[in-house]
Known about the structure:
Number of domains: 3
Number of strands: 12
Strand order of the largest sheet: 5-6-7-3-8-9
Number of helices: 17
Order of helices and strands: HHEEHHHHEEEEHHEHEEEHHHHHHEEHH
Largest sheet: 6 strands, antiparallel
Amino acid sequence: MFKNPDFFEHLCNLLPKIxxxxxxxxxxxxxxxxxxxxxxxxxxxxxxxxxxxxPLKIDISQVFRPLYSGQEPAIDxxxxxxxxxxxxxxxxxxxxxxxxxxxxxxxxxxxxxxFFVANFIEGFIERYYYLxxxxxxxxxxxxxxxxxxxxxxxxxxxxxxxxxxxxVKFEVDTFKISNNVVIRKISDExxxxxxxxxxxxxxxxxxxxxSATHEIVLRNYSYKRQSSLYDYFHFSDPFLYPxxxxxxxxxxxxxxxxxxxxxxxILVYPSNWCDSYYADVEPVKGAIxxxxxxxxxxxxxxxxxxxxxxxxxxQEIKKLFNKADLSPDxxxxxxxxxxxxxxxRQEEEDIxxxxxxxxxxLLSDGEKSDITYKLSMRLTALIRKYKNSxxxxxxxxxxxxxxxxxxSAVVHGADKRAQKSREIKLxxxxxxxxxxxxxxxxxxxxxxxxxxxQHLEAKTNDLLLLRS
Length: 468
């Protein structure tokens, strides 16, 4: 059952002898030390989770490791034969010894080696106490031990990747996108755990990254286990994750709802493994990233209400997401990426360039002549065929030319001309920002070509024009 059954048995002998002494040792301390970042979960009026650091939780490691040098520990594990055996087993077992050894350094000469070994053993005691108290149960301890042993002896780590979806509510708790992709409500325990996935760079306020009720989960991923305790920061690199799939979801969400979301965390939910524990918090890994619109940082989390996705919208997202994944032409993939980038940018000049590049990729024929006219005609033909009741063909045709005028003015640095063409007048005498209208048309065209990929061929669209 276990890779190292003797190690497990000695821990089972050690814990029931030590656990009863923890609470008396804490009571003897005048000011027992407390965790500075222990997460207590609550919920705001807007429904998003919030974390408080109060009440504080006592850090029981102080009874094994005194806070000040020269002090005797309240519970001296070195007096226990089981602890001594466990300590020596780690120092002599090749698998465990190599894990705790500093790279290119002899374990016997490493002054920090003994500290990490003792801390590793103490961690089992602390985790059990926080979860189950002082009464020892072998069955309850097995799960704690097994996860750590799986990590220590596994060459490959299996896990799910999850991305909290910012500032969007959902009508349902769970929704299956595909066999390996699902949207689900974030559990209370995972909300507590993800609060600890932070970084100084980029720095993101917790009110922002905690503003999510649901997450998109990508299942069945794996990673080669790190070879050393000191080789630790793999999971904190956002570029190690399948960003193309994650960003595609948020782009499809925008296509369907016209609502811009984003993400600030990428989480790793381990599959029956753990390298270390923190109190009673779930062992979640992950990375921080600023993959959301800039205006989210302007106290966006203080709003009273947010968009709620309906089941019908989720079904449309599912359809487009899976169709886009099957697209044989990388034009769709690149256009989706360009649309995603436009969602994240601040400068209008950059946004309009992204949008036009995406439109040209989808509708051009590779020839540079009369590109504005061709794109206007083809886009109008597709809009007329699939969205005839929502758009007037002549209006679409003229608006595309105006969008191109704005793009040309931006590219050529014609500030006055660009300023004049920043808005487009509609038939009802209202105005709309040019980039918003460009986004609207690109959304429609992307949905059309994803569901009807034959329109990625320019000839097909030209034949459609002739038949019209």
